[in-house]
Amino acid sequence: MELQEEPPINNSSVDKSDAAFIEQVQRLHQLTVLGRWIFAGCLWLTIAPLCLWNLRTEFVLWKQYFTWAAVRYGLVFHPLSTLGLAFCIGMTVSVLVWQSRNILLGLPQPEKQRLEKQVCRIRQQGPTHPLWKFVINS
User: Fold this and answer.
1) Rounded to the nearest 5 degrees, what angle is found at the Cα of 42, between the Cα atoms of 36 and 47?
2) What's the CA gap between 111 and 131, in Å, rounded?
3) What is the secondary structure of 30-51 as a DSSP string?
4) Is 137 helix (H, G, I), strand (E, B) or coil?
5) DSSP output for 50-80
6) Which of 9-18, 45-54, 85-94, 127-136 has the lowest mean pLDDT?
7) What pTM was computed for the model?
């Protein structure tokens, strides 16, 4: 069984000013944004409840006598919960900053080129590509 080498993507055959191509790149970017938000949401639905459940004894203490020192020690003595919540918060903030930068400043050139290359690969592979119906056939 001989492995076939993937043919190189011929970027010169794609007119990057083509309205359909630009629309497909935008759809792929929207899918990327959606994927990042779904990932962050899944973290909040899976990891965060486990971490908060592990901190339930601390919540009782905080409810009775709330101080920032109590919060600090509660987090220090539950390092896995702290790490899990920090990961959820960090991923959410990173997606927010990434999307805000893209909205305010536009997509950086390397990111645009990566999306254009990916659209070319999707077009080249055709309907067998998993993103074909979302990017090309919409």
Assistant:
1) 125
2) 18
3) HHHHHHHHHHHHHHHHHHHHHH
4) coil
5) HHHHHTHHHHHHHHHS--HHHHHHHHHT-HH
6) 9-18
7) 0.80
